[in-house]
Automatic annotation (TrEMBL):
InterPro entries: AA-Vitamin_Transporters, EamA_dom, EmrE-like. It comes from Acidihalobacter aeolianus. The keyword Transmembrane applies. It is found in: Membrane. Residues 9-136, 150-290 form the EamA domain. This is Multidrug DMT transporter permease.
Length: 305
């Protein structure tokens, strides 16, 4: 992997790991709906500006509403669920649980989309679920009904991400040549559409005292929407074009490391053996499920002349 691509991969992991830090700062102050809506709105605006600068045509081949509907799963619901979890769980917890997305993909793909499920993948899924149990039982946050619901919210978000991947391929990628960057923008618009009614209701029923919102919350929201969403998508698609989708998946292994690091450095979250045990099991599970390291190893191995 070229050095520039490696640096971009690390930056992408740092940004997506940092999203859980920003959520932990913003969600307890702004609330679940406002945080999620603000993220998709800023993400959509940032991507719109970028697409205009790059002169990427917003052509959806008559499938805009399909893209927007899938955006409910790629942006709206996951951002809402992670915002809810951020009111209870440390940033490190959510970032580690986010790594369950490929494992959920195995379950969903095998159950609903006819994907081949090998014994190795099944073992990986159970190992990953075991990692969730270990993290919940041994982490620095006491396990009770509230934290259990927050963990469940994170896992439901990974289900949304995994399901959206299959639906995007079946309903969008296989039905035309819509630019992936336009799909990214459309997904954020879909998130805005689905969350807007809830945002309007909350603004009416429980208006927020905006004058009491501190500067760190505003900075966190800007970071969440513009850096961790808009700019992260730019890096993501740049990496796919440079090193391929499979190699870009290695970011999944790096996000929890940055999630734990940022939580420890900036929020003074207490490190725990549970992070190493639970997170380690989930990382081993990913090694079983994702073929990326095996293929990378074969591509880098010496070849006979």
């Amino acid at each position: 992997m070229p050095l520039n691509s490696l640096l971009r991969l690390l930056l992408l992991a740092a940004l997506w790991g940092g999203s859980f830090l920003f959520l932990r700062i913003s969600a307890p102050v702004l609330g679940i709906v406002t945080t999620a809506f603000g993220r998709v709105m800023l993400g959509a605006l940032g991507l719109l500006v970028w697409l205009a600068i790059m002169r990427v045509p917003l052509r959806f081949s008559g499938r805009f509403w399909v893209v927007a509907a899938i955006g409910t799963l790629t942006s709206g619901l996951p951002f809402l669920l992670y915002s809810a979890a951020a009111q209870v769980l440390p940033a490190a917890y959510s970032s580690i649980l986010n790594a369950m997305t490929p494992l959920m993909g195995v379950l969903i793909g095998g159950t609903f989309f006819g994907e081949q499920v090998t014994p190795k993948k099944v073992l990986g899924v159970f190992m990953g679920l075991g990692g969730v149990v270990v993290l919940s039982e041994t982490g620095p946050v006491a396990l009770n009904a509230t934290t259990a619901l927050a963990v469940a919210a994170c896992l439901m978000a990974t289900v949304c991400y995994a399901l959206s991947g299959f639906l995007t391929k079946r309903l969008i990628s296989d039905h035309g040549t819509i630019d992936n960057r336009a799909v990214a923008f459309g997904s954020q618009v879909g998130g805005v559409i689905v969350l807007a009614p809830f945002m309007l209701w909350q603004s009416y029923a429980a208006p927020l005292a905006w004058s009491q919102v501190g500067a760190e919350v505003w900075v966190s929201m800007l970071g969440l929407g513009l850096l961790c969403t808009s700019f992260a998508y730019i890096l993501f698609f740049r990496l796919i074009s440079e090193i391929g989708a499979l190699s870009t998946l290695t970011v999944t292994f790096l996000i929890p490391l940055f999630g734990v690091l940022w939580g420890w450095l900036l929020l003074h979250e207490r490190l725990s053996l549970g992070y190493a045990l639970g997170g380690g099991l989930i990382m081993l599970a990913l090694l079983l499920v994702l073929p990326v390291f095996g293929r990378l190893g074969r591509s880098l191995a010496p070849r006979p002349d």
